[in-house]
Specification:
Order of helices and strands: H
Structural class: mainly alpha
Distance between the termini: 65 Å
Number of helices: 1
Helix content: over 70%
Number of strands: 0
Largest sheet: none
Strand content: under 5%
Length: 52
């Protein structure tokens, strides 16, 4: 049986939080990219130049 020290628990928690943060960041970025595409598509259909 392995006894985890406080430092081991803290390091594991930091690792888990880092992974969770990365997953949230990636999914937020993908969502923003999808919204951006949808808006660009709507602008194109309405004949509005996206450069404006």
């Amino acid at each position: 049986m392995m006894i985890a020290s406080t430092m081991d628990i803290v390091m594991a928690a930091i690792g888990v939080m880092t992974i969770v943060g990365l997953v949230i960041s990636i999914s937020a970025w993908r969502h923003a990219a999808r919204v951006e595409r949808e808006l660009a598509k709507e602008d194109h259909q309405n004949g509005i130049a996206s450069a404006i």
